[in-house]
Amino acid sequence: MNYKESKKIWGLIRDSKRILLTLHSSPDPDSAGSALSLYYFLKKLGKEVEVVSFDNVHENLLFAKPSPIKVIEDVSKFDFSKYDLYISTDTQQPGLLSPFRVEIKFPKKLKIVVIDHHPTNLKFGTINLVDSGRVATAEIIYELLKNWEMEIPKIMATYILSGIIGDSGGFRFPGTSARTFEIVSELTKLGADKDMIMFRQYNNNDFGVLKYWGLILRKMKIDRKNKFTYYAINYEEFKKYADYASSSTSGTDVFMNSVLGTNFGIGMTEKKKGWLSVSLRSRTGIDVSKIARALGVGGGGHVFAAGAKFKMPYEEAVEKVLLVAREMSNAKNS
Amino acid sequence: MNYKESKKIWGLIRDSKRILLTLHSSPDPDSAGSALSLYYFLKKLGKEVEVVSFDNVHENLLFAKPSPIKVIEDVSKFDFSKYDLYISTDTQQPGLLSPFRVEIKFPKKLKIVVIDHHPTNLKFGTINLVDSGRVATAEIIYELLKNWEMEIPKIMATYILSGIIGDSGGFRFPGTSARTFEIVSELTKLGADKDMIMFRQYNNNDFGVLKYWGLILRKMKIDRKNKFTYYAINYEEFKKYADYASSSTSGTDVFMNSVLGTNFGIGMTEKKKGWLSVSLRSRTGIDVSKIARALGVGGGGHVFAAGAKFKMPYEEAVEKVLLVAREMSNAKNS
Predict the structure, then answer these.
(1) I want to staple A132 with a disulfide (CB 3.0 to 4.6 A). Which of A53, A119, B75, B329 is the partner?
(2) Which residues of B are less than 8 Å from A252 in CB distance?
(3) Strand partners, B275
(4) Chain A residue whose CA is closest to B216
(5) What is the CATH number of domain A207-333?
(6) Which helix (H) or strand (E) is B231 found in, with range?
């Protein structure tokens, strides 16, 4: 499809010399894939390009070595004024560039192009191409390259495919469309290395991650009356697996929306003493973001995946979550 | 692509009145999807068609109700002479029609069309279309319908897609090709209900299945020197979960080829007192069928997935498997 923004974005790229690309915090395959495919494209055009991440980047996301990504810890000290153009990909708002939610003021003369698929994007760019009908931002990048009639070499095809595989849950999530599969077929023909990407994303877990999944399954309970599953892991238990528990494939995603007869699943983890992190996953489309919001400030998310974090002694916090979940679940039933 | 067998198969269908379709034992989505998509096609042509399974069929595989599949327990008493044509799909050899490995003699006058993607197919048909380059037999059915310039209504598209999703591991296995994605895109446009299929295959586990997975992970060990993971479950432990342990998504498939730093994984389960069932999954392409074959009569399979079953007291049997695995692993290293 042809985006009406294509021409304007092309104009800004053509007129720029120094271009900045970024990853969002906790970079995932779509964040890295979108920025890196654009990086190779812009380099080919002869531009000066930098890709910056204000958070650590897992090596599973880096196919070409050495990686062109610069990791810079403190976004507040970063000099945006060096660039003519900033292309922000897969990032809903500037506050999500860094894990520390630093507010950012861009220089007035900096042109900004925002390319994203999150419906909640704040559209902070000079030009905003936000298409929430796409399963991945990388899919939008592909369409732009086609709009501009550009060739897509193997490394770019691989990064675009990696973004699509990441955000579509390996093609399993509902947002994966007929057009997605068409694009994936074309990328595969262009030499995108699907098997390598799949291997890195699904066959590359530390042994500790599986042992942590075992703990989750051991603690998992089912509330058949209110139709949800849940687990709760306290700080002492969590500590043993802390190195693995933030793995890219979390146990919550693997297990909590998969049980017959339930509407949703809740993962509760005391990741910091006295603070409970709550992850919610819907199985049947019941809106779990309502439960997350009811848990207090900072709770929210999407219909299918939401979360919250709050301060309260562990046992009490777990009781509170179950109480809210049961109330919301009954409200839905009545 | 155009199969050279297309025209001959079409001729046999045209000249037949009564046609038989079958599922293989332990029917999976590709077996059901291939047979049922053909069923709706042949009905539309005005043929008398029967679909028979000599094993129970999981309701997750049945999208249209009532199901046209007849379940018949004893294949040895089945009268094949009632039919003019038998189209066998996704079945390597007649012995695999029933879980009891009954030898079958077909009537001489029965015409047989074999359509399959297993490289080890015995080609027992009058016409044999065996394309091992396809991730699923359902993909071959799609190509045939295109060769014959047939319309594919929604229910047929859904069954074909279900077969492809099943045998490609939800598009994750290496055999999934650019052509596969192209076909999937076309099937989605034809109304195939991808999300419903995914939901049934991946979000529909009994709670007991997850608890069984928990047991597997709790027992799972890693042999870092010889680079494999393994678990062993004795009959007393297995008994508690027997209802769930033969679920379509087995724990072996989910976990045993996923650990960083290993070449393969071994699942050992004493499913019957004194008998050890061994499942092997390769992570890096090391040929696990060699280990399966070394375990004795009946052991075998493919490079990435193999199995064996033998009679021996539990502790001794587990020791034997580990010994063979270590030997084969060292042989590979040296």
Answers:
(1) A119
(2) none
(3) B272, B311
(4) A214
(5) 3.10.310.30
(6) strand B228-233
Q: Is B60 on the interface with A (CB under 8 A)?
A: no
Strand order in the sheet with A69-71: A69-71, A48-53, A18-22, A85-89, A111-116, A127-130
pLDDT of residue A14: 98
Given an 8 Å threshold on Cβ–Cβ distance, is B283 in contact with A207? Answer: no
CB of A58 less than 8 A from some CB of B: no
Residues forming CATH 3.90.1640.10 domain(s) in chain A: 6-202
Q: Distance (Å, rounded) from C-alpha B327 to C-alpha B310?
A: 19
**Distance (Å, whole) CA A156 – CA A10:** 18
How far apart, in whole angstroms, are the C-alpha atoms of residue B330 and residue B227? 10
Continuous segment of H or E residues that includes residue A211:
helix A207-219
Does any CB of chain A come closer than 8 Å to the CB of residue B195? yes
The residue of chain A nearest to residue B285, with distances taken between CA atoms, is A199
Q: Quick check: A123 and A116 in contact, CB under 8 A?
A: no
pLDDT single digits (tens) B119-170: 889 999 999 999 999 999 999 999 999 999 999 999 999 999 999 999 998 9
Local confidence band at A85 (pLDDT 50, 70, 90 cut-offs): very high
Token pair belonging to A304:
């299918």
**Closest CB from B178, B211, B260 relative to A188:** B178
Three-state secondary structure call for residue B132: coil
ipTM of the complex: 0.89
**How far apart are the C-alpha atoms of B151 and B148, rounded to whole Å?**
9
> Which is more confidently placed, A326 or B246?
A326
Which of A309-318, B131-140, B221-230, B304-313 is predicted least confidently? B304-313
Classify residue A48 by burial, with Cβ atoms within 10 Å: 0-12, 13-18, 19+. middle
Determine the Cα–Cα distance for residues B171 and B163; give it in Å rounded to an integer: 11
| Ranges for all domains in chain B classified under CATH 3.10.310.30 | 207-333
Q: Compare CB distances from A181 to B174, B181, B222 and report the shortest one's residue.
A: B181
Cβ–Cβ under 8 Å, residues A117 and A132: yes
Interface contact flag, B205 A259, Cβ < 8 Å? yes
DSSP 8-state secondary structure symbol assigned to residue B181: H
Ramachandran sector of residue A227 (left: φ over 0; alpha: ψ -120 to 50; beta: rest): left
Residue B196, min C-alpha distance to chain A (Å):
9
Give the helix ranges, DSSP H, for chain B: 6-14, 29-44, 137-147, 154-167, 178-189, 194-202, 207-219, 235-245, 251-255, 289-294, 314-333
Which of A152, A171, A206 is most worth mutating to test chain B (most B CB atoms within 10 A of its CB)? A171
Is the predicted pLDDT of residue B211 greater than 50, yes or no? Answer: yes
A103 burial via Cβ count (<10 Å: 0-12, 13-18, 19+) = exposed
* pLDDT of B280 above 80: yes
The chain B residue lying nearest A221, using CA atoms, is B207
Does residue B331 belong to the interface with chain A, where contact is any CB pair within 8 Å? no
Asked if A60 has any chain B CB less than 8 Å from its own CB, the reply is no
Distance from C-alpha of B301 to C-alpha of B288, rounded to nearest angstrom = 8
The answer to whether residue B184 neighbours chain A at the CB level (below 8 Å) is: yes
> What confidence tier does B263 reach under pLDDT thresholds 50, 70, 90?
very high
Q: Mind telling me how many Å the CA of A183 is from chain B's nearest CA?
A: 9
Contact A293, A299 (CB under 8 A): yes
State which CATH number among 2.60.40.1930, 3.30.1330.60, 3.90.1640.10, 2.40.10.350 fits the domain covering A6-202.
3.90.1640.10
